[in-house]
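Internal tracking record. Fields below are filled automatically when a chain is submitted to the structure queue. Please do not edit lines marked as system-generated. If the sequence contains nonstandard residues, flag them in the REMARKS field before resubmitting.
Queue: standard
Priority: normal
Entity type: single polypeptide chain
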Amino acid sequence: MSQSIASVNPLNVEIKSYDQLNDLLKQLKEENPNILFTITRSKNFNVIAYEANWKADRSGLNPDQPIKVFWLSWAPELMKQAREQGKSTDREDISFVEATMAYGLSTERVVTCADEMYSFHLVACKTRKGFVRVKNDKTLECTLEVNGEQMNIVRIHIDSTDPVSFFGLPTGFPTVNFTDLVAVNAHNELITEHHVVQK
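SYSTEM-GENERATED OUTPUT FOLLOWS
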């Protein structure tokens, strides 16, 4: 079984708004349920995707790395550059620094669950615990703590301000202004938790 999603923008269009981006991500998730959730950012339209990493025989998730993390480089200038270079994919691995400082995660097998389940903590949301569960029919359920309860996570949006540059070089790390966690609750309602970061 292929482990990748449709990693080229399927509409092959320039993304101009977050509504358009979210519609595209919804389409991708419908086409490939291995996508667990995504992170979008105010900086540009590049996306961090979190994907279930199955064993080759699909008997379960890879215990060493049950979730893969990668970029979808959909910022217009990067898409244009990739097409001009003849690249056939928008998918890029995240770097070691990005994995350890921003977008990576830690996972642990939950041995007390009858189904195959892993807990995870995102570097970007260390205080929130999430779970990915493989059901008997091999479908996936991915939840994260939102508004104090576990909900099916859809996406996370991060609004940030870039640091002041000095001769074209950043003088620090971006400052996070707020985050939006979008999830579906037990009543199949779309819930957004808006969290303003105290400065």
